[in-house]
Design goal:
By secondary structure, the chain is an all-alpha fold. The chain is about 75% helix and about 0% strand. It starts with a helix and ends with a helix.
């Protein structure tokens, strides 16, 4: 299905087209995905799962799970497309998001994904600027805007990588410069 969305757009997704492409019956596809929305929702979930797995693998290779700053940087770096497969998945994810916006249940799925990412980044920011603090912090709402800012910046820069305006390395440099500036600001504010 990713190939269909990437090459032809979400408007070309149908149960029949996916079944034909997969070489299976329409009934078999409908058994798992009763609608186009269900197909696309599953595709979006699969893209997010691939991204999460890629970050886990990179962190395991670096033994970086113990350092919240390393985890944060790996997550953000993982949002930037580096390979052709990354670029394809980013294009598919963007197509899904555009398709999802006028559809409340799909829009909620996109919003939930960003909310979960911002929650994770907020917690990592807390662990970075308040090392040794309790695992169950109180009100983290002051950190939330910083988390959303870095998500928005990273996703926006990923789009500029796709269009060829920036290289992945340039985008990474911008994201990390912003992150380090935010961390400096947060550390000063917590003293």
């Amino acid at each position: 299905m990713f190939a269909i969305v990437d090459a032809e757009g979400t408007e070309q997704i149908s149960i029949r087209h996916v079944a034909d492409r997969a070489g299976v019956s329409v009934g078999r596809v409908q058994h798992y995905f009763p609608s186009k929305d269900a197909l696309l929702a599953e595709a979006f979930a699969a893209i997010n799962a691939r991204g999460s797995e890629r970050v886990r693998v990179r962190l395991a290779a670096e033994d970086g799970f113990d350092d919240p700053e390393t985890v944060l940087m790996e997550i953000l770096d993982g949002l930037l497309p580096r390979t052709e497969e990354d670029r394809r998945l980013f294009r598919v994810a963007q197509a899904f998001e555009a398709f999802a916006l006028p559809r409340p249940s799909l829009k909620a799925q996109v919003a939930q994904g960003y909310e979960e990412l911002a929650t994770l980044l907020t917690l990592l920011l807390y662990k970075i600027v308040a090392p040794g603090s309790p695992e169950s912090p109180g009100d983290l709402s002051p950190l939330r805007p910083h988390a959303y800012r870095v998500v928005a910046l990273t996703v926006g820069l990923a789009g500029l990588v796709i269009t060829g305006n920036l290289t992945p390395e340039q985008a990474r440099e911008i994201v990390f410069a912003h992150l380090h500036g935010s961390l400096r600001e947060l550390r000063l504010g917590s003293e």
